[in-house]
Each structure stands twice: as structure tokens, then as C-alpha cells.
Design goal:
The protein is α+β, with helices and mostly antiparallel strands. It folds into three domains: about 1-90 and about 285-290, Rossmann fold; about 95-115 and about 180-265, D-amino Acid Aminotransferase, Chain A, domain 1 (2-Layer Sandwich); about 115-180, 2-Layer Sandwich (Dna Ligase, domain 1). It has nine helices and 16 strands. It has helices spanning about 15-25, 70-80, 90-100, 100-110, 125-130, 155-170, 225-240, 270-275, 280-290; strands at about 1-5, 30, 35-40, 45-50, 55, 60-65, 85, 115-120, 140, 150-155, 175-180, 185-195, 195-205, 220, 245-250, 255-260. The strands form four sheets. Strands 14-13-12-15-16 form a five-stranded antiparallel sheet. The chain has a four-stranded parallel sheet with strand order 2-1-6-7, sandwiched between helices. A four-stranded antiparallel sheet has the order 8-11-9-10, covered by helices on one side. A hairpin with an 8-residue loop joins strand 9 (about 140) and strand 10.
Length: about 300
């Protein structure tokens, strides 16, 4: 296969591993800086251009689109889809997962376990929202935050209202979620490839932080998940339309509750913790499934 990987930093662990495994299996792969692509949007010959050349002849595209360039990255990916290039994750599915509120609504409609979540526009509803999600304490999240940035724990009614009102005063969108006390500062990431969970890690936050993100000093170890947790992770990825996903959930007293579904999950944490060749499994999945014009949405948004 001839593969394009949309990524700004070719030196990241995840990107290096995907390149290594693609080349080891005899494929040609090019890392293309998403922000340096540009498009010719025309009715019959859609094109993506890069450094003055037209990108043609690709069988598949791996989108590793950073959260800060989601809008532009999805536009480029849609153009590849319109050209008939098979995407590892489709643009529509990535768009669903990146919109935290929309993704929770889609997961809720499918009957999957979620923490009680509230969303409102006006700061006047702060106290009502906090009580609605069984708090305090409550978790207040920026809808655009990533890697634990923009996630705050409001431990009392006064502190939670203060954070809520400050965020709304800055005119940013937030949601308020119930605090799952029994999780004890840990979450689980289940890595899904093609509707199957291929590995799982438990992430533990640093002692002074309720967030468990590895980028914020958390640690990871392999964990055995239950059949219910395995099914929850697989269904979450499938409902959002993702072929590859990192499904983050907490163990609550009433079963797994999904916190987020990541469409560009990092490989370093799970490969180092489990010893599994996740990058190789992704490339093998592509070998089996990549076909011209096989994208379900064909860039329709």
C-alpha cells in the first residue's frame, strides 16, 4: 500500500512506530504536515496539494490530527475521502468524537454508561447544575480541552460555582459532570481496533491531582477488564464510527462510565505498559480493510 499520514510532528513516538511498522510490512508511507496542505475544491477533480505538488496515488490515509487544528485537519481529510482514499478513521467519526458534548449525546442515545452530565449557557444556572449532577464535588470541563487541560474539580458549592461562573464569564463552553469518587483517581483506557479491544491500561494520577492523564504525570499499568467493560469500549467506538479509538472510562459502583473516546490515541503508554505491538495491529487492520472509495460518508460531513 501507499499510505499518507496526516501529522505535524514525525518524531512523536506514535508516528515513528506507525512508520516503522508500515515500512517493515513492505508499505510506502509518507508523513504529511497537515497545516501545509491546501486544497483545490472542484466538482470533478478534487485535489490535495502539498509543497507545490498534487498528492495522488495513495491507497489509505492515517489521520493524526491534533486537537488545535481539528477544523482544518478534517477539511483536508474530507478532501482525501472525496478522492477515494480510504481513511483509518473517517472525518465524520473524528468530528463526532472531538465534540465532547455531541459525543456524549450519541453515546447516551446508544444506552452506554456515562457520568451524570449537565450543560447550560447561563451562569445563573450554576447551583442548579451542580446539584443536578449530584454535587458537590463536581468535575467542570472545557469542551475544547485536551490531555486534562481545562478540567477542574469543584470540591464545594462555593468553589464549583466560582469556577463555573469564571469559565462562563470568559465566554467558553463547559460541561459539569458528577465526580466518581469510587474511581479513586484512576481511569482505564481500552484500545479498540476494528471493534475489538486489543489492550487496556489503568492510569493513576499523581498524588496531588485527581486527573489521570499520562501527560500530566500519571502512571500506567496493564489491567484486565471485564466482559462488560470490553463490550462498553467496543460499542463506544462503533457508535461513533471509529475504527481505531482509545476509550477512557471509570469504574463506578454501577458499572463502567465513559469519560471520552479519543480518535487519535497515543501508542507509547499502552505499548510500554502492555508490551504489545499496537502499531503493527493497526497496519494489519489497514491491510485487511483499506479499499478505494470504501469510505462510508465519502467526505459528506
Amino acid at each position: 500500500m501507499r499510505i499518507a499520514m496526516l501529522a505535524r510532528n514525525p518524531d512523536l513516538y506514535s508516528h515513528r512506530r506507525l512508520v516503522e511498522q508500515a515500512e517493515a510490512r513492505g508499505h510506502e508511507i509518507h508523513v504529511i504536515n497537515t497545516t501545509q496542505c491546501y486544497m483545490n475544491i472542484t466538482a470533478h477533480r478534487p485535489q490535495v496539494k502539498y509543497k507545490g505538488a498534487t498528492l495522488t496515488g495513495y491507497d489509505a490515509v492515517i489521520p493524526r490530527i491534533g486537537a488545535s487544528i481539528t477544523f482544518y485537519g478534517l477539511a483536508i481529510l474530507r478532501q482525501f475521502e472525496m478522492m477515494g482514499v480510504w481513511p483509518l478513521n473517517e472525518s465524520v467519526a473524528i468530528g463526532r468524537s472531538r465534540d465532547k458534548l455531541r459525543s456524549l449525546q450519541v453515546l447516551s442515545r446508544a444506552g452506554l454508561g456515562l457520568p451524570v452530565t449537565g450543560f447550560a449557557r447561563s451562569a445563573k444556572q450554576a447551583e442548579e447544575m451542580i446539584r443536578m449532577v449530584k454535587g458537590p464535588p463536581v468535575v467542570i470541563k472545557l469542551l475544547e480541552g485536551t490531555q486534562g487541560i481545562g478540567v477542574v474539580l469543584g470540591e464545594t458549592m462555593a468553589s464549583a460555582k466560582s469556577v463555573y461562573e469564571a469559565f462562563r464569564g470568559a465566554n467558553v463552553n463547559i460541561m459539569v459532570q458528577e465526580f466518581i469518587r469510587e474511581a479513586r483517581g484512576t481511569d482505564i483506557r481500552a484500545f479498540v481496533i476494528g471493534k475489538r479491544v486489543v489492550g487496556a491500561i489503568m492510569r493513576q494520577g499523581s498524588p496531588d491531582d485527581f486527573r489521570s492523564n499520562l501527560h500530566r504525570g500519571g502512571i500506567a499499568r496493564p489491567v484486565k477488564i471485564t466482559p462488560e467493560e470490553r463490550l462498553t469500549a467496543s460499542r463506544a467506538a462503533s457508535v461513533l464510527g471509529l475504527n481505531v479509538a482509545g476509550v477512557d472510562f471509570l469504574r463506578s459502583d454501577h458499572g463502567p462510565v465513559i469519560m471520552e473516546v479519543n480518535s487519535s490515541p497515543g501508542l507509547e503508554g499502552i505499548e510500554n505498559a502492555t508490551g504489545q505491538d499496537i502499531a503493527g495491529r493497526i497496519i494489519r487492520f489497514m491491510e485487511t480493510n483499506a479499499r478505494p472509495s470504501r469510505t462510508r460518508t465519502r467526505g459528506k460531513g
